[in-house]
Amino acid sequence: MEHVLDNPIYYALTSGHNHIAKGADEAKYYFEDITAFAGLKDNSKENLDTLYQISPPESLFVFFAKTPVEIPEQWKLLTHINMFQFVFRSTTIPDTGGAELTNLDLEHVAEMIDLVELTKPGPFLPKTIELTNYTGIFVDGKLASMAGHRFFPSPYREVSAVCTHPNHLGKGYSFKILQEQIKRILLRNEIPFLHVRNDNEGAIKLYHKLGFEIRTDMIAYVIKKEAV
To answer: CATH homologous superfamily of domain 4-83+219-225?
Structure first.
């Protein structure tokens, strides 16, 4: 039987995030203003064809696969990203040490988008914040670092949008925020996991330090529906 983390987007869209999912049984995707991710029951040509047929014109999607996928010609392959999938293996709830964190909400979205555009941790849209539990650190009134939740293939909860402004790297902000993210997930009896580019040595070192372990390789494909 397939493990839910072998296909995390599809299982998120059929479990914890089924209320913000569109599509058919074979191919599902998030509401377009929340995020651009799609999940396939399996990464077959037939299911990519189904996604093409049921999605709006010129849709852009990101989907994950454990092994290489041949993209059908009606889709334009924009890029693919080789990643590691990490899972938090400890059950010890981190002591966040009273870090001065701010819960981010709609009033912070413009700053969040600016930080994501600068640091490129992954897609972030005006309503991505609805995936919940975004926290940040402000310095002199400006957002310096943040992270939040993304996929929810129950009982696993993904930590995502981990980013820090280049002017504030090396100050431990991501470490503090990730400790808080882990704490919140464990207190709900869920299991933290995340994805990272396999060439991002600094982030990989940080995740190991926090107690995450590599579970598997993963590939992110970015595809666009060509206009007819």
So the answer is: Gcn5-related N-acetyltransferase (GNAT) (3.40.630.30)
